[in-house]
Design goal:
By secondary structure, the chain is mainly β. It contains three helices and 13 strands. It has two domains: 149 residues, Elongation Factor Tu (Ef-tu), domain 3; 50 residues, Membrane-bound Lytic Murein Transglycosylase D, Chain A. The protein is globular. The longest helix has 9 residues. The strands form four sheets. It has a five-stranded antiparallel sheet, with no helix packed on it. Strands 3-6-10-9 form a four-stranded antiparallel sheet, covered by helices on one side. A two-stranded antiparallel sheet has the order 4-5. Helix 2 crosses helix 3.
Length: 220
């Protein structure tokens, strides 16, 4: 089973130890209701769309190692802090901000979102008081308007050209797969981007990869 993860703006990958059991997507629009004398209901006028949100709960557990679970919870809390490494950050003008993230799970990929709210509850401790298990509730809020991306979708569903699927066999690498489909091993980045692959050396055997079509490629 593929593990879900959060991909940060700086391309850091925060693995989910346990996949969430459910995801909740919320999207609101603002409508104006001007007064209407003598009517049963006003005629609504659309004002603007509001940012979508994605809510999920993650279980974090280190009982197998006996180490504090706070190392994992700290990575999540860091997503709420200002990061001076981001483009446009300027401490003097107070323009720094936290980084956005994307929730990824198999073929699913969320919109770019900031962590709007996080609540962490420690639920199990060692006899010495070390926290070993925690539940983290996150609310991700849409960072920007992207008309070409839905709130949660397969990353290939907006690919502008057709694509095929390749099942990885043991020992295969992205460059070898690119050589097979494109006759050019240097095009492995096309496959990596289409499948949100962060580590091209960690492709598991049996995984399904989308192979995007390119103009030079022709089917027989």
């Amino acid at each position: 089973m593929e593990k879900a993860f959060l991909l940060t703006e700086l391309k850091e990958r925060i693995e989910c130890q346990f996949n969430p059991s459910e995801l909740t997507i919320t999207k609101l629009n603002s409508w104006k209701a001007p007064p209407r004398a003598g009517g049963n209901a006003p005629s609504l006028t659309f004002e603007a769309g509001q940012s979508g949100t994605l809510a999920l709960s993650l279980t974090l557990d280190t009982t197998h190692s006996g180490l504090s679970v706070t190392e994992a919870t700290s990575k999540l809390l860091d997503l709420m802090t200002i990061n001076p490494k981001l483009p446009g950050a300027n401490k003097a003008s107070n323009t720094a901000r936290p980084q956005w993230v994307q929730f990824c799970w198999g073929g699913l990929q969320s919109f770019e979102a900031v962590v709007d709210r996080i609540s962490i509850k420690f639920t199990y401790f060692s006899s010495g008081g070390i926290p070993l298990r925690a539940k983290a509730d996150l609310s991700l809020k849409q960072f920007k308007d992207d008309r070409n991306r839905s709130l949660l979708q397969n990353p290939t569903s907006f690919t502008p050209v057709p694509h095929t699927v390749h099942r990885v066999v043991h020992g295969e690498t992205l460059d070898r797969i690119a050589a097979t489909h494109y006759a050019d091993s240097t095009r492995w980045r096309l496959i990596a981007e289409a499948n949100a692959v962060v580590d091209p050396l960690a492709i598991a055997a049996g995984a399904l990869l989308v192979i995007p079509e390119i103009a030079e490629r022709r089917r027989g």
